[in-house]
Design a protein that fits this description.
Radius of gyration: 21 Å
Structural class: alpha/beta
Number of helices: 6
Number of strands: 11
Shape: globular
Order of helices and strands: EEEHEHEHEHEEEEHEH
Strand order of the largest sheet: 9-8-7-10-6-1-4-5-11
Largest sheet: 9 strands, mixed
Distance between the termini: 62 Å
Strand content: 25-35%
Helix content: 25-40%
């Protein structure tokens, strides 16, 4: 069984993003980039499924500029067998990404597509659901546990008040959450091996997807600075302030 894992190149989660001085977006020049942490968990799960004999091949897929090859090499160092880069310098929206992913899924014919539940830059959390809808495949979101067999897949996800386990027929799309696993570190030998693994590059324009933007970013700005808190002497003073100043209780 083949699986595709979609990975996105984002600002490293340890770096504090800075807004450009003209408010047109987030500054990327000279900023450390890495794999979206949720996608890294998806790669780890796919590799574990292959090590368990469930999957026969793990294909890492990314969409973006040529620099995304670095992210794909990381995915292969973690255990992916090969990689495909859909090269594009356009500003892509979740629907664009979902349509490009669908074109690659149609080409590769996997039985399972894994990806993070969201990217830490856009935080849209839409691509997996859109991809499942375009493919007309069953989907499960925010997976915290997976059990895959030839007949189908069981996905456990956290819901309000507990856990929910659902069963899906294959092929399926699954987005993963932080609790699913802890990604391994890429060892130096595996990093060296990843340099020799096949990495195919496909121009996005050849996939027949309309990448015209449907939305326009008007302005990007820093969040407002929070006001400092105050220390109150007792509960009675707190209640009085909630009544007279915040007016959240009567």
């Amino acid at each position: 069984m083949k699986a595709i894992v979609a990975v996105k190149r984002v600002i490293d989660f340890n770096v504090k993003p800075r807004v450009k001085s003209d408010g047109s977006g987030v500054e990327l020049a000279g900023v450390k980039m890495s794999m979206n942490p949720f996608d890294e968990i998806a790669v780890e799960e796919a590799v574990r499924l292959k090590e368990a004999g469930v999957l026969t091949e793990v294909v890492a897929l990314s969409i973006g500029p040529a620099a995304c090859q670095e992210t794909l090499r990381t995915a292969m160092a973690l255990g992916a067998d090969r990689a495909v880069l859909v090269e594009s310098t356009a500003e892509l929206e979740p629907l664009h990404v979902a349509k490009l992913l669908k074109a690659l899924v149609d080409k590769e014919q996997p039985r399972l597509v894994l990806l993070g539940k969201q990217a830490i830059d856009g935080d849209a959390g839409q691509t997996g659901q859109m991809l499942a809808a375009l493919l007309r495949w069953p989907q499960a979101t925010c997976a915290s546990k997976l059990a895959v067999a030839d007949a189908g897949i069981e996905v456990t996800r956290e819901v309000d008040g507990g856990l929910e386990t659902i069963a899906l027929a294959l092929p399926a799309v699954v987005t993963v959450d932080l609790r699913l696993n802890t990604p391994r570190y890429a060892t130096l030998p595996n990093i060296m091996k990843a340099k020799k693994k096949p990495l195919e590059t496909i121009a996005a324009a050849t996939l027949g997807v309309n990448l015209a933007p449907r939305t326009q970013v008007l302005k990007v700005s820093e969040p407002p600075v929070r006001a400092g808190g105050i220390r109150l002497p007792d509960v009675a003073t707190l209640v009085a302030k909630l009544k007279t100043e915040a007016k959240v209780i009567r």
